[in-house]
Amino acid sequence: MLALLLVVLLPFLGQAAESKPNVLFLVADDLNCALGPYGDPNAVTPNLDRLAKRGLVFERAYCQQAVCNPSRASFLTGLRPNTTGVDDLAKWFRDTAPGGSTLVTLPQHFKNHGYFCQDIGKIFHNTGDTQDRRSWSIDEVLHKGTHADDTVYKNTPPALRTIQEDFKAPVTEDHDVPDTAYRDGQIANLAAAMLREHPADGQPFFLAVGFWRPHLPFVAPKKYWDLYDPEDLTLPDPPYAPEGVPGIAMHDSKEIKGYGLVSKDRDFTDEEIRHYRHGYYASISFLDAQVGEILDALEEGGHGEDTIVVFTSDHGFHIGEHTLWGKTSNFELDARVPLIVADPRESAGHGMTTDSLAELVDLYPTLAHLAGIEGDLRKRLEGDNLAPVIADPSVSVKDAAFTQHEHPFYGPRKNREAIGYSMRTDRWRYTEWRSLENGEVTARELYDHENDAGETRNLAGHDEHSETVATLARKLSKQFP
Fold it and tell me: Is this structure's pTM higher than 0.90?
């Protein structure tokens, strides 16, 4: 009887498997929206430009915490940082989240529904050689190490180095080397090979590709530096801290100052600022070229018409704006991320942009829905399904996006004073800084994005905005009691 049942059902099971779309999940590290699809005047990103033409660009997508580990733990579990318990670079969500040992991650959910799931590069934030083997069909590769190790400097014997100084790595490199001198070139090669070799009529796949760039140090082969004239690059805008900003909202750009050949005890000169911005843009163009290699392989492998492609970053990044270099703030530049979703089956938004608010925590329920494997996920995930927006870019599914961060972030945890909870609505960014000792609100920020997109003026203390502050504070307290 069982054999007869299988004979009857197998053709239908095969059809169901064939109808499942593949997923190509591309994640950059420390990438803000300095890209062609977002209208950046400097960026040379032809491959992300072509991806945008076949997909929908989310103009207002936000991470849940602007630093690698908390953000990745959040969007890979569909849970916010307060739920995962991951708020720094060392914690592992399997240890800190309630039921973490049995928690089902985004790729794991796809694996459980018959997908071949592979990770090439940095997807989870791995301390040491952490393998979340239950999430993948085979072991992760090129997923571990430090960013400083991914340099020609670190991979050159000390006696042969052109720079004879003792530091973890220089802040920039512009050597005339092939792309594969760095991890991202190797990652793209492996991902492209997988896409070419995977049978077009085979098991549906979820391929996650995690790039290491443009994270510090700003390193890229010389040909990508040559795409830019540093004198033509725009300078940071705004170059100063917001008027009326509370001190707790700022930081001392410790990350960039931890690399070699960077001045530690003075402001950067205009020449240095141009050089570091040059390095960031060169790293972006290097990343863009790797995306291009992968997109070419997607077509060559016969997967272009049945693969959902997602491109995003774990968080944004300051390159001199507000006097800041790095992430770990609640400002727009750190909270906002690029997000492009290209579903070949849904042509309504191709080549379009949407102003609908989105969060990275929404990716899990969205991709599961698009793949037809959503089930009862809404009961346990904290994000929203963005599929209605992908079908109609004029639609909104949420009226606020939330980001958070403790300060001061770097250094001993005992030195942390407050946590900032930040909410982005259609018009406003409202942030409350709450004491870690007693939960009291110690400072507030309010920025009017309708009239001040650069967040140059904190309006929270202005009498004429007191009602707005009170309204937003009530809304924020519902998300973060």
Answer: yes
Q: Map out the domains of the chain as residue ranges.
A: 17-393, 417-481
Does the annotation count 125 as an active-site position? yes
**In this structure, are strands 22-29 and 307-313 parallel, antiparallel, or unpaired?**
parallel
- Position 2 scores a pLDDT of 41
Residue 276 identity: Y
Distances (CA, A) of 180 to 31, 150, 221: 20, 11, 9
pLDDT in tens, 287-313: 999 999 999 999 999 999 999 999 999
- Strands (DSSP E) contained in 89-204 are 116-121, 172-173
* 296 vs 108: CA distance, rounded Å: 27
Q: CB within 8 A of 171, min separation 6: which ones?
A: 216, 217, 218, 256, 259, 260, 261, 262, 276, 279
Catalytic residue among 63, 117, 125, 322: 125
Tell me the fold of 417-481.
Answer: Arylsulfatase, C-terminal domain (3.30.1120)
Is 127's pLDDT higher than 80? no
Q: Do domains 17-393 and 417-481 have the same CATH topology?
A: no
DSSP 286-301: HHHHHHHHHHHHHHHT
pLDDT tens track for 73-98: 999 999 999 999 999 999 999 999 99
Residue length of the chain: 481
pLDDT of 14 above 50:
no
Catalytic residue check, 68: yes
Contact 371, 21 (CB under 8 A): yes
| Coil/strand/helix, residue 310 | strand
Contacts of 72 (CB under 8 A, 6+ apart): 27, 123, 124, 125, 314
How confident is the prediction for the chain on average, in pLDDT?
A: 94
Q: 17-393 has which CATH code?
A: 3.40.720.10
Gap between the Cα atoms of 423 and 242, Å rounded: 17
Contact 341, 55 (CB under 8 A): yes
Residue-wise pLDDT for 235-283, tens only, equals: 999 999 999 999 999 999 999 999 999 999 999 999 999 999 999 999 9
Q: Which of 63, 68, 215, 278 is catalytic?
A: 68
Q: How far apart are CA 312 and CA 315, in angstroms?
A: 9
Distance CA 248, CA 409 (A): 10
**Secondary structure (DSSP) of 383-426:** S---HHHHH-TT--S-S-EEEEEEES-SS-GGG--EEEEEEE-S
